[in-house]
Amino acid sequence: MCPPFHRRGGGGRRRAPPLHSPPPINTPTNFPVQNRNFRPNQFPYPPRPNVEVLERIDRAVVKARLDLLAAGENASAWKVSQAALLILEVDSWESLGVQMQKVPSLHRLIVTEGKINAFIHCFVGVQKITSLYDLEVAICQNEGVGQFEELELGPLVRHPLVVHYFSVSSDVTEVFRITTEEILSSLNTFIYRHKGKKIKPDDFLDFIAKKKAVEGREKLTVRIQSLGMHISHIWKARRAETIELDKYREGISRESVEENKKCPLFSSQKQLDQHCSEEDDCDNCDHDDDKIQNDAQSHSKFSSQSFGVDASVVCQKEEAESEKRIFIIPRHWIA
User: Fold this and answer.
1) How far apart are CA 209 and CA 46, in angstroms?
2) DSSP3 helix / strand / coil % (the chain, rounded to 5)
3) Exposed, middle or buried: residue 39 (CB in 10 Å: 0-12, 13-18, 19+)?
4) How far is residue 290's CA from residue 269's CA, in Å, rounded to a whole number?
């Protein structure tokens, strides 16, 4: 049944809801009791290695690293540590009682190798087109060294990450000097020569290898992840260049037309003769031309007699020079 309803002011009281006791909590009875006398410092620390033992291990690490560098191999922390164990004639580092990070030379090698590996991963992951030469230059600038060999990690072409990313074969002994700018310049030429054709990375690398006189594209040590972005930018740049050139040509032709309107020139000698025939002073003009021609002949004759040169040759030279001269036309000649 529903509880009775009481109106306000009816004088009745509401019934309080029945109180329910919470369910009992089952606490485990078999929980282990903590030892009040426990102290965290009760665990023993590993004993510190003996100074003499640590120095002997460090000398072995240095010798192992120098041996790998002399052999032209990659001097990674793993290879150096394993070679050091062979020099010390032990099976593992646990038997020495020393951690690898506690050895100073090995610790510096681990830090340097970690930095170089991280840099290579980031550099290759960002660059769509890059060369091993650009990677070497970037590493040297980041580490503040002149050459990669100064890091004492072995040849760059033998680095495991370089072999993986750039597909460097075992017969490659040095880094081929080619920059990303040169690669993009060659890509521009390759696109122009292969209009309307699909551009494949292998064909493009073969084109560069032939241009650089290299035996195979593997020796270029060039990594190409994608060509689409660079091809798109090259086409956009060409369109922009064509538009600017067209604007320049239109401006030049417009200026030339305006200049011709201001200062008209005679297109041929025939027009000049026609204007001269309409004037009364043409006879005087012809008389002056005959006089100039007679003076030129007499001058050439005198020169030939004085210097022993053929007069006909001198006359031909004088006529050629006279054709190059610019004569000022009087205004009354022009109709």
Assistant:
1) 58
2) 60, 0, 35
3) exposed
4) 18
- At which residue do the structure tokens 């320049």 appear? 248
**Overall average pLDDT of the 234-245 stretch:** 79
CA angle 273, 278, 282 (to 5 degrees): 65
- Residues 145-150: contacts with CB under 8 Å, at least 24 apart: none
| pTM of the shown model | 0.59
Q: Tokens representing 119?
A: 């840099």
pLDDT on residue 207: 93
Using DSSP's 3-state secondary structure scheme, residue 60 falls into: helix
Say how many C-beta atoms besides its own lie within 10 A of residue 105's C-beta.
18
Catalogue the long-range contacts made by 146-155 (C-beta closer than 8 Å, 24 or more residues apart).
Answer: 151/112, 151/116, 152/65, 152/69, 152/75, 153/74, 153/75, 153/76, 153/112, 153/113, 153/116, 154/68, 154/69, 154/72, 154/73, 154/74, 154/75, 154/76, 155/72, 155/74
The β-bridge partners of 130 are: 223
Dihedral sign for Cα atoms in the order 274, 276, 279, 282: negative
Structure tokens at 276: 């001269």
User: Where do we find the tokens 């590993």?
Assistant: 46
What would the mean pLDDT of 179-201 be, rounded to a whole number? 88
Find, among 195, 212, 205, 242, the residue nearest to 227 by Cα: 205
Contact present, 178 and 220 (Cβ < 8 Å): yes
- N-terminal to C-terminal alpha carbon distance within the chain: 131
